[in-house]
Amino acid sequence: MDTERLTAIGWKPCFERQLPADVGDGLVVARVSAHYGSQVLLLGEAGDRRAPAQLAEAAGELAVGDWLIVTAADGRAVQRLERQTLLYRKAAGEQARPQLIAANIDTLFIVSSCNADFNLSRTERYLALAIEAGAEPVVVLTKADLCEDPANDPAHLRRQVERLRPGLIVETLDARDPEQANVLRTWCGPGQTVALLGSSGVGKSTLAMALGVGDLATAAIREDDAKGRHTTTARSLYLMPGGGVLVDNPGIRELQLPACVAGVESVFEDVVRIAEGCRFRNCRHEGDAGCAVIAAVESGELDQRRYANYLKLLAEQAHNARTLVERREQDRQRGRYIKSVLKDHRRRREET
């Protein structure tokens, strides 16, 4: 096994410990680099190769970033290695199902721009998702030159984001300048996997190019709303020149939190701490008697926007958690029904 080659694309000792003894005997290690519906692009010791999605998914549902043990002959997966992190959301729309975003991400660059896109509540949402997934979040503020309001200069915006969570790392840069993008290389290198997450037009593809992943399509900023057009259309894994890989995600128009209570409480640990002073343990923080959270909002200790977003995200993830559980139960019941129908069909054929 070419460990050096695999390390360049994010391989770690925790994955090597999962390898079966017969790797090398017609079996090879590969990483999911992209998923094109009917085909999956695999990156491994021998470089890129395409495999039919049906064969690659023989060991389970795949996300970009997954590590697989596949047959050297046709790319059939015989094992999906245990994921260290998994980034996913509730699927957009009314469908109650999880949508995988990326697996085995070490660092998540949450990208927002210093213009009309800047939104603290959205950043809190992304932070909760990253923490729940197990990835380290780093907020990257781009397009500092487009911040027209002197009261909201990049330094001020950075301080606002830093206050969202103790120890949160925030970097402000011009994504078009590779020299400025170098501040992010601390999280890049052999054995490391980073991903970009943010709305369309915030400069994710430009930032990816500044980190050296190659020429990605970008689009100009629209004058009417200061947003760029959607450019990246599929999640893809790119090699970085210094080692390690980067996952460039499409701009997310709707990001509904799945079961994410730990992530939400971690982002809002100040609210959780205040809530410990509520008179009743089951306080809903919506006007209940003796609510310490409401008292903190009224006194100015807790920001009204932050309080409202905490309640919103907590309720959203609780609702989606219930619907996802219900969907899984429906799928199990449907599976049992189909099996019973097939069993009855086989019995009738045998009787005739």
TrEMBL record:
Species this protein is from: Posidoniimonas polymericola
Example of a GO biological process term: ribosomal small subunit biogenesis
Key words of the record: Cytoplasm, GTP-binding, Hydrolase, Metal-binding, Nucleotide-binding, Ribosome biogenesis, RNA-binding, rRNA-binding, Zinc
Family per similarity comment: Belongs to the TRAFAC class YlqF/YawG GTPase family. RsgA subfamily.
EngC GTPase domain residues: 103-253
Cell location: Cytoplasm
Known partners and oligomeric status: Monomer. Associates with 30S ribosomal subunit, binds 16S rRNA.
Required cofactor(s): Zn(2+)
Pfam families: RsgA_GTPase
Gene3D superfamilies hit by this protein: P-loop containing nucleotide triphosphate hydrolases (3.40.50.300), Probable gtpase engc, domain 3 (1.10.40.50)
GO molecular function: GTP binding; GTPase activity; metal ion binding; rRNA binding
CP-type G domain segment(s): 93-255
Claim: Metal-binding is one of the keywords in the record: yes
Cofactor binding remark: Binds 1 zinc ion per subunit.
Function per UniProt: One of several proteins that assist in the late maturation steps of the functional core of the 30S ribosomal subunit. Helps release RbfA from mature subunits. May play a role in the assembly of ribosomal proteins into the subunit. Circularly permuted GTPase that catalyzes slow GTP hydrolysis, GTPase activity is stimulated by the 30S ribosomal subunit.
Protein name: Small ribosomal subunit biogenesis GTPase RsgA
PROSITE patterns assigned to the protein according to its UniProt record, in alphabetical order: ENGC_GTPASE, G_CP
NCBIfam families in the record: ribosome small subunit-dependent GTPase A (TIGR00157)
Binding site for GTP: 142-145, 198-206
